[in-house]
Design brief:
- With about 550 residues, this protein is an alpha+beta fold.
- Among the domains are: about 100 residues, Ubiquitin-like (UB roll); about 250 residues, 3-Layer(aba) Sandwich (Rossmann fold), CATH 3.40.50.
- Helices cover about 25% and strands about 20% of the residues.
- The chain has 15 helices and 26 strands.
- The strands form seven sheets. The protein has an eight-stranded mixed sheet.
- A hairpin with a 2-residue loop joins β1 and β2.
- It is elongated.
- The two termini are about 50 Å apart.
């Protein structure tokens, strides 16, 4: 492959690659503001300018490229034998000048800015800026603007990199943002009467390299250096978007995209970014409950599990079958543990899918682009994974059977054949239908859910569950890709994962009250699942989180 030298480091490149792309890929640090891999190149910030030398075709001697003027590395294509310097006196002088110009009108509000701690202007000011300001004139003051339902624009912090404008034109295709004014009065703005409220709007906050565009939900909520980031998967839609759950002291503060070029590239939808609020609702279910003399009372977990198994076994002893309705909001491991437990209690148990919520139709951004970002109408993360697991468990059973849809299991519940039900929810909003409530009349109901509902009030045993950010597991997205996610925050007190509840029920059914259920381990469950025909992919094809290399601190630490 052809080679280029950047700051003394020899790097290989593919024809057509830009100098900055090669530097970023090789870990060579080059300052940059306006460049982004997912957007067009405008070369407007000028901080990435570098000295470039090329070998003379006749003599082979290195000569200044383009007469020796500094070249934008984000816009200059690599050529064989090219030598690039971003640390030469001329390049460093340009970096200092650019930083000085950018800071002329920038307010000194780092102590109150939400971007502090992850701001490129802060980082580059320290690494490439001057030690003092020579500007003595009055700073230009620009207003703070409310530009959308979830976004504030602090115009006086903006450095006019135009990443946000290019995003709305090239990725979302909605073009709400524009550049108005000229010179030092130039600023980002929305067109009159067109707030930035498209389905991908929140990505402009991630794109902003400074604290100009801010998320209203995160405003003054937490300092970023206190946050811990856990790799996870979108737990609300069928997209399987890769995300980071950012949290501190057991509380989620924000969701940010995690780059995966095969799934969501660099972006996530606003429904994923803001749809997790139910995780921290005050009325989340906590603590097992059971009915005594028609009244629902709090009980210990062991008693709740025991009552559930005894009630379901009593139904089976009368010659009636039980059914387990597995929500598509659950992980594959949850589905397997619950199906295994149901078949241990009643080897003829019906296995069924919960309702699959769909809103509208699939959308592509920008509209009409075949390989654009896709927003899925299916609002559950794992309908395909749950169905795959339930079908494999059903086929492996001596009695066989099929996986019923939600409509089919409603019809079965209305018959006298079914006498007991294990039903799961974990939806972010109320999902109970009148048809389900009517079909459960006269049945023994074990309800596993996170939020209060009519079903919870009706249930004979209630076993509170955790949300996807409080457990580990894997989801299968709309493209059939199985992706693992990690637990971000501790489980809500008095709640357990569905896979743990499944193991508890299974152990109780097999060993009685003296049995000790193992702790739910997603990796161990996947290994067990992979032994069933049709589930080999859970051993061979689960995509694990790929995290960026951790950077060393810029300041050298010396022991005293």
């Amino acid at each position: 492959m052809p080679q280029i030298t950047i700051n003394g480091r020899v790097c290989e490149f593919k024809p057509g690659q830009l100098i900055l792309q090669v530097a970023n890929g090789e870990g060579v640090q080059v300052p940059q503001y306006c460049y982004h891999d997912g957007l067009s190149v405008v070369a407007s910030c000028r901080i990435c300018l570098a000295e470039v030398w090329m070998p003379d075709k006749a003599t082979g001697k290195l000569m200044p490229y383009m007469g020796g003027k500094l070249m934008p590395t984000c816009q200059t294509a690599c050529m064989e034998g090219m030598v690039v310097y971003t640390e030469s006196p001329k390049a460093v002088a340009n970096q200092k000048a650019v930083m000085e110009y950018l800071l002329i009108n920038h307010p000194l509000d780092c102590p109150v800015c939400d971007q502090a701690g992850e701001c490129l202007l802060q980082d580059y000011s320290y690494e490439y800026g001057r030690g003092q300001s020579r500007f003595e004139e009055t700073k230009v003051k620009n207003p703070k603007k409310d530009v959308g339902p979830n976004i504030y624009l602090y115009s006086d912090r903006c450095i006019m990199c135009t990443r946000c404008v290019r995003f709305t034109r090239e990725v979302s295709g909605t073009s709400e943002l524009c550049v108005s004014g000229r010179g030092n009065r130039e600023e980002i703005d929305v067109f009159p009467g067109q707030p930035i409220d498209n389905e991908l709007a929140g990505n402009v906050v991630d794109l902003c390299p400074v604290g100009a565009l801010l998320d209203k939900d995160f405003l003054f909520a937490q300092r970023v250096w206190f946050l811990k980031s856990t790799p996870s998967i979108d737990g609300l839609t069928a997209s399987g978007d890769n995300i980071f759950v950012e949290h501190n002291e057991g509380k989620v503060y924000r969701i940010k995209p995690r780059t995966n070029m095969a799934v969501n590239k660099w972006w996530i939808t606003d429904e994923v970014r803001h749809g997790w609020k139910f995780v921290q609702r005050e009325d989340r279910l906590s603590g097992a409950r059971h009915k005594q003399f028609g009244v629902q009372l709090a009980t210990e977990w062991a008693r709740g599990i025991s009552d559930a198994v005894e009630g379901l076994k009593a139904v089976s002893a009368k010659g009636k079958r039980i059914a387990v309705i597995v929500s598509p909001m659950l992980s594959c491991e949850d589905a397997y543990a619950l199906a295994k437990a149901a078949r241990a209690i009643d080897d003829r148990a019906f296995l069924a899918m919960g309702p699959i919520p769909v809103q509208g139709q699939d959308k592509t951004f920008p509209p009409g682009k075949a390989d654009g970002f896709k927003l899925y109408a299916e609002k559950c993360p794992n309908s395909r994974g749950v169905k795959r697991v339930l079908e494999a468990v059903s086929k492996s059973s001596p009695h066989g059977g099929y996986v019923a849809s939600f409509e089919q299991i409603i019809a079965q519940l209305r018959s006298n054949e079914v006498g007991g039900v294990i039903i799961t929810g974990n939806y972010p909003s109320n999902w109970i239908t009148g048809a389900l409530t009517q079909a459960l009349e006269g049945k023994f109901v074990v309800a596993l859910d996170t939020l209060p509902s009519e079903l919870i009030d009706r249930a004979d045993v209630v076993l509170p569950c955790v949300t996807w950010v409080e457990k580990a597991g894997c989801f299968e997205n709309a493209k059939g890709l199985i992706q693992a996610f990690e637990q971000a925050i501790p489980a809500r007190e008095g709640a357990r994962s569905e896979s743990q509840i499944g193991l508890d029920l299974y152990t109780q059914a097999k060993q009685g009250t003296g049995g000790q259920a193992p702790l739910a381990n997603p990796a161990a469950l996947r290994t067990e699942m992979g032994k069933l025909p049709g589930l080999e992919a859970f051993i061979t094809s689960v995509a694990l989180p790929v995290l960026p290399i951790e950077q060393a601190p810029a300041m050298e630490m010396v022991e005293l």
